[in-house]
Amino acid sequence: MASSSSHAYNKNYEYDVLLSFSGEDTRKTFVDHLYDALDRHGICTFKGDEKLQKGKEINGELLQSIQDSRCYIVVFSKRYASSSWCLNELLKIMECHKTNGQTAFPVFYDVDPSEVRKQTGAVGDALAIHRNMNESEVGRWRDALKEAANLSGWDVKKTANG
Question: What is the mean pLDDT of residues 102-123?
C-alpha cells in the first residue's frame, strides 16, 4: 500500500483538491464556503462549475481533472445519487483512489453516512430515479457509494456549527 500512496505524491498534479458535489442542494451553501476557504489557504481546487471550459466536452474534461487532482472531497447530500453525472464522477474518483493512491475524503452533508453506505432514506430515494437504467451500471454506482461511505470522513451534523 505504501507504494500506491507514494505514487500520488510523486506526480505533479494540476489540482490539490477536486470537489464532487450535487450543485442542486449544496453549491450555494456548503460547497461555495468550502471552496472559498480552500482558496483563501492557497489550495488549488477544481470546482466543476468554475473550471470547466465553455465549448469543451464536459465529461472528458471532468474525467481528466479527476486524474489531475491529488485528492477529492466528495460531498454526499440528499440529491447526490440522483445525478448520473455525480455517480460517474464518483466511479472515476474511486478508481483513482484504488489504483493511483489519490485520497478521497467523504463529507456527509444533511445525510447520515449509513444512508450512503446502505442506499436508504433520501439517498435511496435519489438512487431510485435510475431504476430503469442498466442494472450493471447502477450496481457499480451502488458499490462506489458503499466504498466511499466506508472511508474515514466528516459528518457535518456531528461537527461544531454543523
Answer: 96
